[in-house]
Specification:
This protein has about 80 residues and is mainly beta. The protein has one domain. The chain has one helix and seven strands, in the order H-E-E-E-E-E-E-E. The chain has a four-stranded antiparallel beta sheet with strand order 3-4-5-6, with no helix packed on it. A three-stranded antiparallel beta sheet has the order 2-1-7, with no helix packed on it. A hairpin with a 2-residue loop joins strand 5 and strand 6. It is globular and about 35 Å long. The relative contact order is 0.26.
């Protein structure tokens, strides 16, 4: 399966944070790569959405929805830098 880019999560992230989060910066805990969310490798065909580092495949961000509630986990991201509002 070919991964999408971070734009695949743009709508959900905007709904949750009320701003464009695809330009948010991050640092991968696996390899130290830094970059914006839009550069993540996104897989959205399962029960949730998983974003991985394109360099080392570390899971950076997971988003699931159940009964109208979203759960977000960012096990592989450090130093998130939110874009200006």
């Amino acid at each position: 399966m070919q991964p999408l880019d971070g734009n695949a999560m743009a709508g959900v992230l905007h709904d949750l944070f009320a701003r464009d989060i695809t330009t948010m910066g991050y640092k991968c805990t696996g390899c130290g790569k830094t970059g914006p969310v839009v550069e993540m490798a996104v897989y959205a065909s399962g029960p949730g959405t998983v974003a991985r580092c394109r360099d080392c495949d570390t899971i950076l961000l997971m988003i699931t929805e159940r009964r109208g509630m979203y759960c977000i986990d960012a096990p592989g991201m450090t130093q998130p830098i939110l874009p200006p509002a």
